[in-house]
Amino acid sequence: MHCEPFEYEKPVSLREFESLYAAKGEDAKILAGGTDLMVLIKEKLLAPRLLIDISDLHELQGISFDSRQGLTIMAGTKIAEIERSALVKEHAPALAYAAANLGSNQVRWMATMAGNICHASPAAETPPVLLAHDCELIIGKQGGERTLPISRFFLSYRKTALEPGEYLKAFRLPPLPERSAVAYRFKGLRRAMEIDMLNIGAYLELSEEGQSVSDIRLAMGSVGPTTYRATATEQRLKGMQIDDEFFATACGGVVQEASPIDDVRASAEYRNRVIGVLTRRALEECLEIIASRGNKA
Amino acid sequence: MKKLIKLEINGENFDLAVEPTAYLIDVIRESVGLTGTKKGCGIGDCGACTVLIDGRPALSCITLAVACTGKAITTIEGLSKGTELHPVQRAFIDKGAVQCGFCTPGMVLSSKALLDENPHPSQDEIKTALAGNLCRCTGYAKIVEAVEHAGQLLSGEVTHEQA
C-alpha cells in the first residue's frame, strides 16, 4: 500500500522527546500505540512528515495511587495494563471496565489511553469515564507542564485544547469521596472492534444521610461532536431526593441536552431513545456500588 | 531513506534495510520470507496479521517494522519445534478448528498469548481474547473448543492421544 513518506524517530528519554517535539512538532505526530494513527495514515487522512515514537519512554509509563492526589496514570500506559491494574480496579473500576471493552485484545496491548483521548473521537470509550471522574490532565511541553480539567480538553470534533508543542503526559483521577461511585454504560454492535454507538459515564455522590444527591456528573458520548457533560441536567439534579422524579429528571434531561446525528452506527432517533435508558442504568449501578460499600463498612 | 535495523524473529536475528514506512507484516513476509503471517484487512480490524511482540498479541499490519528493534517477535513459524507442533497447534487439529486456514495463524497466536497469561480460561474469556480475530468460515465453536483443549494439553490434564 502506497503512503506518503515519513521519517521515524525514537527518542530514548523524555527530555530528548520534548526537544525534538518542540523543534519539529508542526510536521510531526506522536506515535504511541498507532492503532488510530497508522490507520489514518494508511487511509490517507493524515500525512505527517515525522513520527516520534514514545512507546518505550519509561518516564511515561505506570500507574500509581496516593490518598491525597488519587490515581495517576501515565500517558504511555497501555489500555491492557489499565484493564488489568489492581489499582485501577480498586479506585476506578468503571475505567477498567471501559478499557476492557475497547477494541480487541491486540488493540488493547498496543493502544494507550492518551491516544484514545487525543484522537478526540466523540465515540471513544474512555472519555466519558474520565469526565465522570472529573479527571485532571497533565499536559507537558519542553521546559514545563500545566494541568487542565478534562472538561475543557475536547474543543470540537477531533480537536483538543493541546497547543503546538504540547503533549498529554498523565491522567490524574482525584480520590473518590465516601458515598460516591462512577459507572460506565455503552451500546455497540458487537463485542469487539466496534465503536460505541452510544456511551455514558456517570458520577453520583450522595449526601451524608444517603438520601439525596450532593454531586453528580453525566458525560455522554456519540451524541454530539465531542464527549460532553449534561451540565444543565446535573445542576437540576443536585440536591434532589433519590426517587422516581430524580430518575425521570436525569433521563429526560440528557435527552434534551443530547444532539445526536444519524450516522453509520445508529440513527439519531435511536440514540435519543436509548441515552436516557443508559443514564438510568448507570445511575442505578452507582447506587448499587455505594450501597454495597456501605454494607461492607 | 532506508534504515538499517535488527529484528529478532522467532529467536533469530535479521539485519534488514527498511523504509520507515514499512509495516512489520510486509517485512516479515517479503524481506524475511516467513509467509505464515497473513494479511487480511490491512487496517487492524481482522486479526489475521497477529504476531506476538514481547509475548503480547499485536497487529503487524499497523505496526512499523522500525518500531520493533530490540523486541522479540514470534510468528506462527516460531511455535513448533521442528516437526513437533506446539500444543495449541495440536489442539486446533485435534478439534477440527481449521477450515480455510487463513485466520488460523492469528487465532493460534492470540490463543497462545491468552493461555500464557491464563492457563484455564472460561469459554467467555476465550471469546473475549479471540474477539479481535475474525474467521469468515465462522468456525468459532470449534476454535473455542480447541483453546480449552489446548489449555488441558499444556497443563498435562489430557494428552494428544486421548483427544
Question: Which keywords apply here?
Answer:
heterodimer, A: 297 residues, alpha+beta, Uridine Diphospho-n-acetylenolpyruvylglucosamine Reductase, domain 2, Uridine Diphospho-n-acetylenolpyruvylglucosamine Reductase, domain 3, Enolase-like, domain 1, 3 domains, four-stranded antiparallel sheet, 11 helices, 14 strands, 24% strand, B: 163 residues, Ubiquitin-like (UB roll), DNA polymerase, domain 1, five-stranded mixed sheet, 5 helices
Account of the 3D structure:
The complex is a heterodimer of chains A (297) and B (163). Chain A has eleven helices and 14 strands. By secondary structure, chain A is an alpha+beta fold. Chain A folds into three domains: 7-53, Uridine Diphospho-n-acetylenolpyruvylglucosamine Reductase, domain 2, CATH 3.30.43; 58-173, 2-Layer Sandwich (Uridine Diphospho-n-acetylenolpyruvylglucosamine Reductase, domain 3); 180-289, CO dehydrogenase flavoprotein, C-terminal domain (Enolase-like, domain 1, 2-Layer Sandwich), CATH 3.30.390.50. A five-stranded antiparallel β-sheet of chain A has the order 4-5-10-6-7. Chain A has a four-stranded antiparallel β-sheet with strand order 11-12-13-14, with helices on both faces. A three-stranded parallel β-sheet of chain A has the order 1-3-2, with helices on one face. The longest helix of chain A has 29 residues, at 268-296. The radius of gyration of chain A is 19 Å and the shape is globular. The mean pLDDT of chain A is 94. By secondary structure, chain B is α+β, with helices and mostly antiparallel strands. Chain B has two domains: 3-78, Roll (Ubiquitin-like (UB roll)); 87-156, [2Fe-2S]-binding domain (DNA polymerase, domain 1, Orthogonal Bundle). Chain B is built from five helices and five strands; from the N terminus they run E-E-H-E-E-E-H-H-H-H. Chain B has helices at 24-31, 87-94, 104-117, 123-129, 140-155, and strands spanning 3-9, 12-18, 50-53, 56-59, 72-74. In chain B, helix 2 (87-94) packs across helix 5 (140-155). Chains A and B meet through helix 2 and helix 6 of A and strand 4, helix 3 and helix 4 of B.
